Amino acid sequence: MTQPNPTISTSPDQRARILIEALPYLRMFQGKRIVIKYGGSAMTDQSLKESFAEDVVLLSFVGIKPIIVHGGGPQIGELLKKVGKESRFVKGLRVTDAETMDVVEMVLVASVNKDVVSLINSQGGRAVGISGRDGPLIKARKARPAKLADMDVDLGLVGDVDSIDPTLIDSLEQQGFIPVVAPVGSGPGGKPYNINADTAAGALAAAVGADKFILLTDVQGVLDSLGELISSLSEDQAEELIENGTAAGGMIPKLKCCLGALRGGVPKAHIIDGRVSHALILEILSDEGIGTEIVREKAPGI
Description:
By secondary structure, the chain is of the alpha/beta class.
């Protein structure tokens, strides 16, 4: 019979060194905003959900200002299936008619958002849930048609970020709350728009002057042509990976989202593995970090 693994313990000196290693980062990010896009396995695995919430609460307690933007695509798909409506995607974007938009808002705002808020509050945090339509925080415009087999496909109520007014975020932070944002925007006439969560999070990071933008994903980070993790990239190097095909599939929009945040003034963007327990703390408060950082200044060669 397989014996359980023994508990790995650290000496008092090792534990002290771990805390001391975090000290310069605690100083560096005191009072700074960090926008975190929450998605993937970190939203579905119970132990990862708890470690995520613990990380967010710890960051808040030490004076860092986390702002959470969450996804919810799988949950939307599940409810659409239950009501007998088929999901249709074009270039990774969900075609969203009025009926689908009702489901999107129901899931993101009334369900997922409240679950994330409750999760953080259960660990001692003070989170408040809002959508991009509150405030209004996110003003949206209709996304351009997507090309499919040389045809233009109308995506319906899929939106792009037109502008962001951070007044509501400012107000919540002044009262000591952690904002948790559902990526739904308000279009002309108050019409709701479904906005890609990565896109909304990157735009929000730029608008609030975040010091870091972090994408939690289900991959290690950005990989090179040999499948090895790239720890650091400059903007030019990230663009080159897209152009030469090294970055492919779902990594392309994530890199473009990070590049958009950098161009909006965010110093660093990070694509990290949300399947790793306490990924946020490991990235923000340790020397080595995890995943891939994309920086505005020139990074070491790939």
